Amino acid sequence: MLATLLHCCAGAAAALTSGTDLLVARGLTRREASSVEARYRRRHRTLLDTEELEATFASLDALDLRPQQAAHLLRSIELRELRAAATNHDGAFVWCSYKKALCDCSAVPPSLGTAATATAAATDAAPVEIVSPQLLSVDCEFNPLRVAAVDETGTLRLDALFASTGAGTPANPRGMLACDVAATPCQPQAELRDTLLALLAGAAGPSEGCTWVAHTPQQDLAALGLSEAELRDAGVTLVDVARLGGAAAGQASSLKRMAQAHLGVEMHGGGSRHCAVQDAVVTLRLYDKLKSDDDGGGGGGGGGGGGG
Ligand SMILES: [Zn+2]
Predict the structure, then answer these.
(1) Separation CA 226–CA 93 (nearest Å)
(2) How far is it, in rounded angstroms, from Cα 192 to Cα 145?
(3) How big is the CA angle at 281 (ends 278 and 282), to the nearest 5 degrees?
(4) pLDDT of 89 strictly over 80
(5) Spatial contact of 211 and 239, defined as CB atoms under 8 Å apart
(6) What is the whole-number distance in angstroms between the Cα of residue 224 and the centre of ligand 1?
(7) Which residues are bridge partners to 187 per DSSP?
(8) What is the DSSP letter of 110?
(9) Does residue 51 or residue 253 have the better pLDDT?
(10) Residue 248 binned pLDDT confidence (cut-offs 50, 70, 90)
């Protein structure tokens, strides 16, 4: 009897050790690896075997993550949930440096001629062939201070950290992985502001400046050092989607509630961090959905928003 017990324990210990080693090889400490295994055991009432672990690693590897990102996911998400998210249909979930998780923020990654050029425009001379967006959905997150802008085609035009003082060091990168901080452009407020204004004015010139779409943008504008008057002077129409859809003045509904009500989209759930890219995409979808209802209703800055 005792012998059988001892044998069982030894077997379990052996299984644990190899799983731990595999997790440690992926950048977890031994302690973290043990808690990953304990969590798995509690949830599934069975030991974590190497087969399950290897399958999870394979699904993570297919996402092309940085080692730090993959290690973070292994630590923070239950393994089967992680594998389910990672193998979710045609890559709908991507690594999100805002949430430090897999996120369905669906903005098309910036490519040459869009965000890359726009960002360069702030530091360099004349912007080369920026295709002027008609709509730009802008959102800031404040901890750390970041800004994202997505255009009407769903292309990410800007995703940057605010620099503290002139230099390229972010103001407060707390809460981000070091590899994400290193990979995120970091610019002083004045440059970010100029980048956005250049995008908004675009090649079309101020007379055909585009529409800045946002959800309750006052704080974001303040963070960027921009005023509504300045945007108006630059020919930019500012639309606050919180004022669309029949919302009474001063009765702005949260983005989460509006997304639920008008798009059937669940976001900001379970206390997860907000993602500026996702917020910008959802804001854009809300604008599309609600603008026709409010046509002529004077939601936000400049009324109708272009004839057609
Ligand atoms: Zn995201």
Answers:
(1) 33
(2) 12
(3) 85
(4) no
(5) yes
(6) 21
(7) 162
(8) P
(9) 51
(10) low
Tokens 């998210």 belong to residue: 85
Contact between residue 16 and residue 53 where contact means Cβ atoms under 8 Å apart? no
Predicted confidence at residue 100, as pLDDT, reads 92
DSSP state for residue 308 in the 8-state scheme: -
- Mean pLDDT of all residues in the chain? 80
pLDDT of residue 271: 66
Distance 106 CA to ligand 1 centre (A): 8
* Mean pLDDT comparison of 125-134, 186-195, 266-275, 285-294, highest-scoring range: 186-195
* Average pLDDT of the residues in 244-250: 68
Q: For residue 91, what are its two tokens? A: 């890559």
Q: Which contacts (CB < 8 Å, 24+ apart) does range 285-288 have?
A: 286/215, 286/241, 286/244, 286/245, 286/255, 286/258, 286/259, 286/262, 287/135, 287/137, 287/213, 287/239, 287/241, 287/244
CA–CA gap between residue 73 and residue 84 (Å, rounded): 13
Distance from Cα 207 to the centre of ligand 1, integer Å: 33
Token representation of residue 180? 């994400």
CA of 225 to the centre of ligand 1 (A): 25
Q: 93: which 2 tokens? A: 């979930």
- Return the structure tokens found at 221: 């504008």
pLDDT for the residue numbered 166: 56
User: Please, are residues 291 and 244 in contact by the beta-carbon 8 Å criterion?
Assistant: yes
